[in-house]
Design a protein that fits this description.
single chain, alpha/beta, Inosine-uridine Nucleoside N-ribohydrolase, Chain A, nine-stranded mixed β-sheet, 13 helices, 39% helix, 19% strand, globular, binds inosine, glycosidase, inosine nucleosidase activity
Amino acid sequence: MATEPKKIIIDTDPGIDDAMAIFVALQSPEIKVIGLTTIYGNVYTSLATRNALHLLDVAGRTDIPVAEGSHVTITKGTKLRIADFVHGTDGLGNQNFPAPNGKPIDQNAAEFLIQQASLYPGKVTVVALGPLTNIALAIQSDPAFVKNIRQIVVLGGSFAVNGNVNPAAEANIFGDPDAADIVFTSGADVLAVGINVTHQVVLTDSDRNELAKSNGKFAKYLDKILDVYFGYHHDAYSTKGVYLHDPTALLAAVDPSLITYTEGAVRVQTSGITRGLTLFYNKQKRFAEVTEWCDKPSVKVAVTVDATKVLKLVMERLINS
Ligand SMILES: O=c1[nH]cnc2c1ncn2[C@@H]1O[C@H](CO)[C@@H](O)[C@H]1O
């Protein structure tokens, strides 16, 4: 008997690489996308909702519900860091797309996550592509959430490498460090895919040309919006290509054999100049002192990725659309 597709909820702040991840997800027979939840990060939450609905219009998948997420951090912070300089002011490469046809559902993101996890215990994977506020809210509001959810795949952190906001912090963790610490210490099955891994997955100019030349609906759409993302990478990193953060995390949820990981406790620095730093403890040494890592449950942290295979899957799935 064929195995049932994995149920996936994508928590997203679209975002150019979010758009790519969502389209790859919709082209992946191994999974069933049962909803999108939205969050601030690349754009403010209201625009993330609009963009999520727009992307589902483009895909002809308005059957998929969109639940709007938090507009503020878990500590009610309103001074958000929005990465419009990476994705354009509209989040999707400054293309003036029309308003979406659909509307978000009445439930908010945390309520939707809680409901779906309890409807299908052990069956729903969340792929979190933005700051972790919605997931932390679900964990705080429902004590059963961490056992009902199958896995939380987090695109975030910079494990033993520099961040992309500053040398300490990666953007999604920096967006809500308190929420990230709640998720990492919750006891849920968490897999963190950090930029130490996603920086190995690069879509080059020639890959982009291939997308442009193809007849794939998603490939052509993405070619249009990719200019801003390429420009940013060129200026910030001097690369002739772009990092595929979100598609890599999504594909790690689809097929865990694309990555290897290690296990241990992760804490997040929530203040000071290293705010947003993710610090991994491998649980090998027994320290003489009691530390803030000692009694924390282990999470999985991605270490290597089969970058060639991830890129191949992304290209194939976008071109055959
Ligand atoms: O330099 C950056 N600053 C802020 N956000 C970024 C930057 N580069 C990429 N992203 C966005 O944040 C996530 C990865 O950290 C990705 O979702 C990417 O779209």
